[in-house]
């Protein structure tokens, strides 16, 4: 049996009932075949793939808190420190009822390769809780964040592990968690979290970074394949941090984003999504998308899923994992879509990815196209270490350069291994090589 197949079967056997984790490992291992074949004796002797698929540390803890009615509540907290060989563990925190060990492990596994692709020294991690922030008061959110940090603080630090935001965790939650960390530690250690407020060590441009970075990479991918992003119709899913700033940057590039979605339904706006209305509904009022169409009479609201049925040139899934299925891929191809770039982590299922690729659709995986968020987190860490702040132009220029470099890095890696145009393979190989070389250099640990 091939080394890769052996490892994948072990992962499935040893981690039962973790489908998202299996899916992420399968996608990465599959693309590493040509690299592993070249180095098989060495990798086997060093148990490199076994170590690659095994997290260095998984922390699970109880998060007790009291709701506004005085009722005690309990949630599960997690931090998976997957691989620290190229830098401090780094990755977001997700608060969403679907969070479980499988989701945490898939996200932290992916984060290793993403962080490696940014070129910055950051290892891979992820954490979060099955806490549902929807409908909670601001005070409940604060008490939850404080309780979560009261346990998490033991395992993190500016040179150890640096969490940030993800689904359900934005500037407000990072502020509350940072406050509790500072209170427990008794000093300023801003570098322990990224995505902080600008008044206490946050970086300009971090809020916009993932969405903007997604568009910088997408424009470069289109350009290198003979297309101009200006004038393109874009379908976006999600209506959170990533989707909002992807939509904003798409407009700035002369494209027209026409859809967005949340967990209840989706919007088609034939005049293009109005970013200010979207921000007011989702960021300011934390309301549902039904409110969006009240302010935009030409727009249509539909319950359930359906963003990928809209005719578009480019599709940007920016909500969550497994939200673009084979039947969606078929609709996109039938409607003439030329490119898909993932803003979310693993939004496209494996069979949908393969269908898109084999039908000539340019496809960029999230670990490359959504790396702008963690890249600017890395820049925030650098600024915190220097006790200095770059201007928004400086940060944006660096982000732009990082995203363009990432695209060329994976394009080149795919060519070098005889898989030209397969950006999934290119991203996995380029991301893997740096981590693998660091692991080999550091011995069997
Ligand atoms: P937000 O919480 O800001 O927004 C998430 C959006 O996706 C919301 O519109 C939400 O709808 C929707 N959504 C979430 N879960 C589901 C679900 N199970 N079914 C349907 N819709 C869902 O998160 P972000 O924008 O930060 O994150 C979006 C994606 O991007 C995630 O995959 C995340 O891992 C990834 N990402 C985020 C980065 C960042 O810097 N924030 C960096 C790189 C990747 P609703 O409003 O109803 O909850
Ligand atoms: O998935 C991701 O890359 C993030 N949620 C951002 C992580 C970070 O540390 O900024």
In short:
Helices cover 49% and strands 15% of the residues. It is built from 18 helices and 13 strands.
Shape: globular
Q: Would you identify the CATH architecture of the largest domain?
A: 3-Layer(aba) Sandwich
Tally of helical runs: 18
Oligomeric nature of the chains: single chain
**Helix/strand structural class:** alpha/beta
CATH class of the largest domain: Alpha Beta
The termini sit apart by 26 Å
Domain count: 3
Can you tell me the CATH topology of the largest domain?
Rossmann fold
Beta-strand content: 15-25%
What is bound: which ligands? NADPH dihydro-nicotinamide-adenine-dinucleotide phosphate, (2Z)-2-iminopentanedioic acid
Layout of helices and strands:
Layout: H1 3-14, H2 19-31, H3 33-38, H4 40-45, H5 48-52, E1 57-66, E2 72-83, E3 89-95, H6 101-117, E4 123-129, H7 138-152, E5 161-164, H8 171-185, H9 206-224, E6 233-237, H10 241-252, E7 256-257, E8 259-261, E9 265-268, H11 275-284, H12 290-295, E10 300-303, E11 314-317, H13 326-334, E12 339-341, H14 350-358, E13 362-364, H15 366-369, H16 372-386, H17 392-416, H18 423-441
Parallel strand pairs: 3-4, 3-5, 6-7, 6-11, 11-12, 12-13
Antiparallel strand pairs: 1-2, 2-4, 8-9, 9-10
